[in-house]
Design a protein that fits this description.
The complex is a heterodimer of chains A (166) and B (425). Chain A has 3 helices and 6 strands, in the order ααββαββββ. Chain A has helices at residues 13-28, 32-36, 67-78, and strands at residues 39-48, 61-65, 90-100, 108-121, 124-139, 142-152. In chain A, a hairpin with a 7-residue loop joins strand 3 (90-100) and strand 4. The radius of gyration of chain A is 17 Å and the shape is globular. Chain B is of the alpha+beta class and 425 residues long. Chain B has helices spanning 25-28, 30-41, 163-167, 170-177, 200-206, 213-216, 218-222, 226-231, 273-281, 286-297, 341-354, 362-375, 410-424, and strands at residues 21-23, 46-50, 59-65, 68-74, 80-84, 99-101, 104-106, 113-115, 120-122, 142-148, 151-155, 186-196, 240-245, 248-252, 301-305, 309-312, 315-323, 326-336, 383-385, 403-405. In chain B, the strands form 4 sheets. Chain B has an 8-stranded antiparallel sheet with strand order 12-18-17-16-15-14-13-20, sandwiched between helices. In chain B, helix 9 packs antiparallel against helix 10 and helix 10 (286-297) runs parallel beside helix 11. The chains are: A alpha+beta (166), B alpha+beta (425). The A-B interface holds A 47, 49-50, 57-64, 69, 72-73, 75-76, 79, 81-85, 122, 156-163, 166 and B 98, 189-196, 216, 218-220, 222-223, 328, 333, 341, 345, 348-349, 351-353, 356-358, 360, 362-368, 370-371, 374.
Chain lengths: 166, 425
């Protein structure tokens, strides 16, 4: 072990929140290509179907996306050939109630946030609520999403088709 | 329900279903829905669960028969029951968990307790009842229940034919479908549940509709490797649609994948190469690897059983009518019971790829069905057309069965003729 302790620049809650809000804005505007660039190469985007799940790889989820799946998902949503996303519902989302968790390393921060999405399409407005767990890391000076788990409060009950990204 | 509005029962529903079309009111008329619940969902075999969802003694899962909530239980003697989920005292539901293990259901209101076979076990402060209070008369209401190859059905109709007869030629296809267990047996691996604002029969039709696939699911097909995309040419692969009687039908989309125990010497598809290598590294012999990999890919047909269940390529598709314009769908993932973890993981990832509220397929289906319901508000005397179809390929369907080509609407016509028989009986 080196005698010199490297002083890592800690990721502050404010920095992380700024990234999360930027992400939310991109998603509400359907700016999915720039959204892809917010991720680390190995990042996982998970929408559980089971609110109690721990090891998501071993259970059925609503989405379990690695990088290639995220790319394909974005391609699909932007293609114009998916009727549920052409046009997509309009959305407005807010994320708040940030709670810091145990980060795995000094170059990372773990956060849990509350997310409320209101979506509108075809004469109706729906409200969705979820806990969102983030792992955000600093890579080459930039903050990146390394893991995002969106757990709807009703993940194990019925949902409706969702033609946009969470 | 059970009691339908005055006048509703006397209506002539038969005239709404012609050979090649049905009247739009079948999607939109609340009175028709009310009668359907009574004459269809309360009168025939309705699928409630797969046996793996009640895996051992004293296990249960909640379900529905039509609009009525039930609990599917396996009692301590291993017998399966389907019980109405209401206390016999003052109607409180006795179980609000989706699935679990227990030896007793206790009503939270006044504490009546029931065994897993539905028998009333105990009543608190029993001396407050008169001496002639007979506990044996107040068990949970138990429905007639029968299973076929792991699939549990229940019915309110004590006079209906045995389940095996009701399924008839569909049994052969259930047996073929269960080959996805690859010798391990089939188990459920979780489910997606979603609703769409539309009539239940729109979903019933869809299971036997290969015509929509290349149009609605273009973005799913575009996300596949070329080999798989070619495989998923559901209209052009020489399949067919076959009427199996009693409203059931099978839509064969990939004839090479009807029997998963055949063609085991075919080359392993590129998308399964890593899985095959992983299974081989576990010490499985070549034949086992091939059998498992072929099962992971799923079957090549949709078996549609009237009124609420389909064995759909690689999962169970369950519909539940909520209202004339609201339907709930469950896509139940299946895998190999005690089979290789890597293979079941891949099954789940494949399921997530297409199915569920954010799959690459389901949201577009749901949107399409909603659009049908929206469009059906227009045109008082315009019909839903079900007249598509040319001859089935030689040697495909069972001789004597009504059948048509892969994108024909034979299966829908079969379902609506069953609907007509039941609604006019």
């Amino acid at each position: 072990m080196s005698a010199v302790i490297e002083k890592a620049p800690v990721i502050t809650l404010e920095e992380a929140a700024r990234l999360i809000w930027r992400e939310a804005e991109l998603l509400d505007r359907h700016q999915y290509k720039p959204w892809l660039k917010l991720w680390t190469a190995g990042g996982l985007y998970i929408i559980p179907a089971d609110v109690a799940a721990v090891d998501y790889a071993e259970v059925l989820n609503i989405a379990y996306d690695d990088g290639p799946m995220r790319e394909m998902r974005v391609k699909r949503l932007l293609s114009g050939f998916s009727m549920s996303s052409a046009p997509p519902a309009r959305t407005v989302r807010t994320l708040s109630r940030f709670v810091e968790g145990e980060a795995a390393g000094a170059q990372a921060i773990a956060l849990r946030a509350a997310m409320i999405i209101v979506e509108y399409k075809y004469d109706r407005t729906r409200v969705l609520a979820a806990d969102v767990d983030y792992r955000i890391v600093r890579e080459a000076g930039e903050l990146r999403i390394d893991r995002k788990v969106v757990t709807f409060i009703n993940a194990d009950d019925f949902l409706h088709g969702i033609g946009y990204l969470l | 329900m059970g009691v339908v509005s005055e006048n509703a029962g006397a209506r002539d529903f038969g005239s709404l279903v012609l050979e090649d079309r049905v009247h739009t009111s079948l999607y939109t008329d609340p009175q028709i829905f009310e009668v359907e619940v009574d004459r269809i969902f309360k009168s025939t075999w309705v699928w409630v669960a797969h046996e793996s969802e009640v895996p051992g003694p004293n296990t249960f899962r909640s379900s529905w028969v039509g609009t009525q909530p039930v609990i599917v239980t396996r009692d301590k003697a291993d017998k399966i029951h389907v019980l109405l989920n209401r206390c016999r005292h003052r109607a409180s539901s006795v179980c609000e968990k989706k699935q679990g293990k227990t030896s007793v259901f206790v009503c939270p209101y006044h504490g009546w307790s029931y065994d897993m076979n539905g028998a009333l076990r105990k009543v608190p402060y029993a001396d407050g009842y008169a001496e002639d209070f007979d506990k044996s008369r107040f068990g949970l209401v138990s429905l007639r229940t029968e299973s076929y190859n792991g699939m549990i059905f229940a019915t309110f109709n004590d006079d209906i034919m045995p389940l095996a007869d009701y399924l008839g030629p569909a049994r052969k296809w259930i047996d073929l479908f269960m080959k996805q267990g690859a010798g391990f047996g089939v188990t459920t691996l979780g489910e997606h549940k979603f609703r769409f604002p539309g009539n239940w029969k729109i979903q019933l039709e869809n299971t036997t509709d290969s015509y929509h696939f290349p149009i609605v699911h273009k973005t799913f097909l575009d996300s596949l490797d070329t080999e798989t995309e070619n495989l998923m040419d559901l209209i052009g692969s020489g399949g067919w649609v076959e009427d199996l009687g009693n409203g059931h039908s099978v839509a064969v989309m990939m004839p090479d994948l009807i029997d998963l125990e055949e063609n085991l010497d075919a080359p392993i598809p590129e998308r399964f190469a890593d899985l095959a290598a992983e299974l081989a590294a576990e010490g499985r012999d070549d034949l086992d690897v091939r059998r498992i990999v072929r099962a992971v890919g799923g079957g090549g047909f949709n078996l549609n059983m009237f009124p609420n269940i389909a064995c759909s390529m690689a999962f169970f598709r369950v519909l539940r009518p909520i209202a004339v314009n609201e339907t709930e769908i469950r896509h139940v993932a299946i895998g190999m019971k005690g089979g290789p973890a890597a293979a079941n993981r891949m099954r789940m990832r494949l399921h997530e790829h297409f199915q569920g509220p954010m799959g690459f397929g389901t949201p577009d289906d749901a949107e399409g069905w909603e659009r049908v319901q929206r469009g059906a508000q227009a045109g008082d005397d315009v019909y839903i057309m079900l007249n598509r179809g040319v001859a089935a390929p030689e040697g495909g369907p069972e001789p004597g069965h009504n059948a048509g080509d892969a994108s024909s609407e034979v299966g829908m016509r079969a379902a609506y003729q069953m609907w007509k028989r039941m609604m006019t009986a």
